[in-house]
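Example with several molecule types.
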Amino acid sequence: MVRFIAGVHLGGIYLMAVALATPWRWAISRRSVLYLLIPLSLTLLILLPVYQERISELALHDLALERNQQALAAQNQDLNSLVDRLKKLPPGRVYAGQIHSVITHWGERYRVGDSVSVFHLLLAENLDMMGVVYHRYSLTVILR
Amino acid sequence: MIFGENRWEQYNLYNVRYVVAPEDRDFPAFVQPLQRFGRHLLYQVETTGYFDLVGSSLEFTGGRTDFFPAAMDWLAGELPSIKQHPTMFLGRHSTVDGGSFRGRVEASAGPSRGTVLSEEIGNNYFAAKVAVERESMLLLKATYHPNWRATVNGVKTDTVMLMPSFVGIQLSPGEHEVRIEYRPRGLRVILLSLGLLSLLLIWIVEKRGGSLGSWFSLRVLNPISSAIKRRT
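Resulting structure tokens for the full complex:
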């Protein structure tokens, strides 16, 4: 059931906000403005590591995105010609290796740049791909 | 499920007609190179297309969770290569023995079953013209769902689930025009209407929220609270 965990996370974020609101309510109810420094410090203390973690993670994403965009631009013409050719051929499924959670396969390493798999690029072109798709809700699927 | 890329019958089973791979990959001889696009190589494989004529002398009965191991065993065995696709009857609950096969096991593919003369693929349908030489199942290599509606020569026909969860239609000898179309059930229209009705209600409540609130408290809440007070 991992795919339905988002609700739990959203609930957790809501509860955290409720908890953090408690010292703010307390400080606002005091007469002196100086009391606001306590919840402010507490909020900064709690949120600063979160902010730092997000900043470093997003910087990594930025770097990865830039490298992938460069690789995609370099191979753009070849990939467009490949997709055009596939769309003009008689209908059939396309196999570009397997992206599997239990086995290591060449399809996993068959990428443009660091993280864009050729399988997903072709899937995004609406080609009938042989492999695992994002959503699997057939009658025979086992929900985990 | 792991695709056996060295077995032609698996390419045919899933209608894998094209392979895109990096230049350093080696494939069996039946995977023929077609064209190079920079570091990407395009290959072609001969298949029967999205349809095939197969036999189904076996039946598999089990629960939904029994399906996966049974399909794995079937795929690993020789039955796919002789085009024997058991008809599947899946219940809601798994069985103690993990499901069971019944029927006659064929040793070979036997004489020709016929030919798929042409096929057509649309957004929500597959159509084919087939010449059948002996009683066979027409296999559509797409995931089975009860919402697939089939016609043979314009006459509505039942579909079955064939291993590994594909759509099957029983065909008698002769030439047939088959059309298999995916049509969602009426429930979707009801849900869509309910959704639109909810949007309309939200708009009404937003527009007349105040007057609706006072009507609700006057006509519904007040009589209820008065009734409770009278009782106590």
